[in-house]
Amino acid sequence: MNCLIQLASLTGDCMPVADQEASCKYVQMYISNLLELFQQGPSKWETNHFCMIINRLFLYRPLTCVMKQEAELRSRFFAFLRDYTIHLTNQAMQKAIGEAEHEDHTSLALIYDAIVVLLRGRWRTCFASEEEADAVDNELVKWPVLMIVNAFIQNVLAPPKGSRPVAKDEDDGDDDSEDRTLFQDLFNPLSSMICYSVGEFMENMATNLHQSLAEFTGMATGTVDSSRLPTWQEDQHWLMLTLANSLVGEEIDGACHVSGDVFDYTQKMFHAGRKFDELKKAQYLQLCIEQPTQDRQQYAQEIDPFVIIMGELFAWASIEHDVFANASRDMISPELCRSTFLCLRRFLNAASSPVDCDKWNDYQGVAAENLPVMPKAKEFSAILVRFVVKKVLSVLLNYGSEEKLCQDAIDCLLSLVESHASDIASSPELFEYLNSLDIARLPNRANLMKALVLIGAAANDQELQENMFKLILVPLSERFMAAVSVPSQTEVDSQIVDYLQCFDGVAKASQSHSAPVLFKFLYAIIEQCVGLMRSRSQNETVVSNILQLILDVTTKVSIYIDNEDESNALYSSLLQIVDSYRNDQIKRFTHFNTDDEDKAADLALFIDILSNVLSKDFLTVGEENCSTGAKVVIHSLEMLLTIMNDRVLQMPEVALKFFRLILYLVEFSPESLAEMSDQLMASLCQCIKLGMTGQFGMEITSTSLESLTEVVLHFGVDQNKGRCTQNLAMLFKEMLPTVFETCLSNTCENSIYAESCSALYAIIAFERSFFDEYVNGLLSNRSNEKGRAVLESAFTELMEVAPEAGNRRGRVQFRNRMEKFLNRIQGLLSYT
């Protein structure tokens, strides 16, 4: 089987892709033999290898060679591929759902991906006649693809509609074991397949949703046996996931879009004479939201199929909310509710996104109201926003302990921010529910605050923004101030942590246009954190949340602040917090070990804050004004260098961030080195030397070498050489052997080799006698006696051009000479 996989992906000189005739003949031979070998299908032991063969065949062979095979062979191959894919879909989904075994699921993903590649190749192939093109479409595209999609849907629905077995729960219980994540590798290619039969799929899906809704209504009213409710909930869950991953797509940044094939289908209907009424569209969707159980058949021929499906989704979401509001919670599954929010979020965001018809030639001549998008009428927007706000906030109010469900609900609210921020901000229902909701008590408090701030910032109305600020942020701030003034108690400290996490959500929502207002608000909180660091120094949770808030303020907010006074005020507060952290927290690291993850996380946060501060440093001049980013970092280094021992540096995240901080300091603010005391400078160099040993990983070795280069270069220029103390110069001399040996022993590690050459060049340029003395010591070793003549000659050639501080061209030439030097001394030089 491995040989067949290799033959399927054969490339190179033995099978040049450019030779079309040879490629087509090879594909013909390969497919013929493959069909003969597996005419009964692969055995269960061969399944994964067989799917890999199909996958590699379509990825590595020109697809035109597959399409242009003889009609009889091509038809047999496509029929076999269709039948086997349907068979494997049944087998894999039964095992995945019923037995929680995913080996065949993995194989199915391979063959699904291969079919998508083949389908795309169909549209890149030109055929000699329309008859041949139609034959390929019938054999491969329209009905075969729809059959595969339907097979998948049948396997996720329970009898009598489908064949889904009783589900076996996954053991992990984490995000990766959720259906939406676990089966994403199938949903992605399925969404591409659906595009080729989008009309039929929308018709089938609308029927499924309508029937499912009617069944639930019957169970809710008692006219249908409710014993099937758990099975129905699972069916609806899979319908929601299928819908969320088919007609709409989601980008990496969370923005959603309606599939282009849905627009193409609408365009075809438009040019065929079927046009849709914008007013009827709004009436239909309003009916689905406000009267979801009413008959909607009258709109079936007057509304775009995509909008029909969106209406069925709205109707289900509305019924779900009504049942929940009427205290029938036993009929609502939190998992189903999450899937509903996922689907609703994607449809809301995708259908509300603006579409510029004139931008796309394909849609010219199609009026905007005929496209599959949300109605633009102001009255409908108010109805839609009211519906979403009530559904989202009622879940937060009543299901606050369900963290994942609440997060999906918040994400659903965010889906309307870009298109309806002002409507949300002016919605009476928003504040009605918020008055009943203690945001600080929610597990998702930070994300909810972020969402509310984003809504306020996107509402293009100063009055609405001020109203949200006054009704949401101000009361929260006042409650925080009151809690801070109370002596430390377990309950009070827990409240303070909740408030800090709320403010962290505010910081994360900062954007360039909202940062000035948010900075003023958050700076008042940070001022309180100065005293809080002292009064709650023993409470590690409070300290950690203060650090997280400051990190996000320096990352998301202060970066947009151009006012020097405000930045320096922040630095002044940070200096006080650094003092508190150094005085009260340093003892926590006295007995540090690699199991202390909480301590390591705090330290990593603290170092991140310093890196952010350093990146926005004004470097203001004046003896009294020392509140600059670089000086904050120097002040902090005095504490950090006292605790950065071997045990602390064994934590990879802490070590890497610490050595990067040193690099940022010496590279972007070399002037700050003059602010350091001799003792601090010596400790810094000793730490750099420790990083060069290689015991903390390659990246830290490279970073330490780069830091050393920057320090030596700074003191190597004439105007700074007088500031270099004798002790510091001796430290450079002590590090030279380590740098030289690192250079010789890392010739295969490009980054380390390049940085060690640069560091060595900088030290030699700083003081040539250091290197000469070291070389003489090496040559005097008894172990180097036999090769002394060759070594002397090699060192002489290496140093034929005297290094100069800051000469980049000279540094490149030195590295080239070093490569020749290494070739000459192979096996001759001994360090001992």
Question: Can you characterise this structure?
Answer:
- One of its GO terms (cellular component) is nucleus.
- Belongs to the exportin family.
- The chain has 36 helices and 2 strands.
- It is an all-alpha fold.
- A hairpin with a 5-residue loop joins strand 1 (248-250) and strand 2.
Brief characterization of the structure:
With 832 residues, the protein is mainly α. It has helices at 2-8, 20-37, 47-60, 63-67, 71-98, 103-122, 130-156, 179-182, 184-194, 198-221, 229-244, 260-271, 278-290, 305-325, 334-352, 378-398, 403-414, 417-425, 428-436, 445-458, 462-484, 490-508, 515-535, 540-557, 564-585, 597-615, 629-643, 652-668, 678-691, 698-716, 718-721, 726-745, 750-766, 768-779, 788-798, 808-824; strands at 248-250, 256-258.
Instruction: Indicate the overall shape.
Output: globular
Helix content: 55-70%
**Separation, N- and C-terminal Cα atoms:** 54 Å
Biggest β-sheet: count, sense, barrel?
2 strands, antiparallel
Supply the number of helical segments. Answer: 36
* Alpha-beta classification: mainly alpha
What is the CA-based Rg, rounded? 34 Å
In spatial order, strands of the major sheet run 1-2
Low-confidence stretches: 358-362, 618-627
Relative strand content? under 5%
Looking at how many chains there are and whether they match, the oligomeric state comes to: single chain
Mean pLDDT value = 87
| Number of distinct beta strands | 2
